[in-house]
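User: Could you go from structure to sequence for me? I need the amino acid at each position, not a summary. Structure tokens:
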């Protein structure tokens, strides 16, 4: 209750809330699917996925969920193997590993690993459980202001190349000028 204004009920209209947030939804939900495969075993490989946003009209992509499906690492006796994949708003550039969830422009990261060093069999497998989108009450998980996003894959100590299938669920929105400028600057400067 506000001081001096007793017994008032406040209603917030969803469209007004979106406007207050700095952008307005302009499309229905869109699923963008992709697949990236290592160019050689153990080599970081990146795929650029175009979104074809209307940058002249401050269009952004509002990501509401994502899914990552990684190949399984090879089970090799006495050898630790793993597969790591990620989705980012900007390119990994000259990186040698998949960007982590601690990087500003990372949307999601998944990892599967087999720890077999010191074992004569193929070891024990592990999977990072939080590789997919947060399932709580979030309005969105990422905002992409540039015209594309990137998917990365890298295996370690595998005999064959590994791949990642993925999907982003998003909708298009039009940002006001100051919000758009801030989002673009944030993406570009933190790349």
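Assistant: Here is the amino acid at each position, in order:
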């Amino acid at each position: 209750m506000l001081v001096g204004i007793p017994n008032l009920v406040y209603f917030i209209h969803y469209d007004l809330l979106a406007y207050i947030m700095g952008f307005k939804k302009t499309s229905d939900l869109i699923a963008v699917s992709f697949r990236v495969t290592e160019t050689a075993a153990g080599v970081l490989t990146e795929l650029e996925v175009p979104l074809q946003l209307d940058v002249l009209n401050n269009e952004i992509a509002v990501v509401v969920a994502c899914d990552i499906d990684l190949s399984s690492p090879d089970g090799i006796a006495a050898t630790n193997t793993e597969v790591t994949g990620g989705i980012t708003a900007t390119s990994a550039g000259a990186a040698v590993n998949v960007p982590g969830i601690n990087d500003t422009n990372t949307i999601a990261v998944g990892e599967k690993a087999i720890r077999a060093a010191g074992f004569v069999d193929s070891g024990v497998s592990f999977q990072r459980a939080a590789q997919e989108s947060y399932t709580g009450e979030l309005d969105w998980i990422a905002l992409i202001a540039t015209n594309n996003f990137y998917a990365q894959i890298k295996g370690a100590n595998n005999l064959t190349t590994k791949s990642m299938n993925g999907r982003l669920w998003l909708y298009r929105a039009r940002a006001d000028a100051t919000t758009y400028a801030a989002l673009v600057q944030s993406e570009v400067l933190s790349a």
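One structural detail worth keeping in mind: Strands lie at 23-25, 30-37, 45-50, 59-70, 81-88, 106-115, 124-127, 142-144, 148-156, 163-175.
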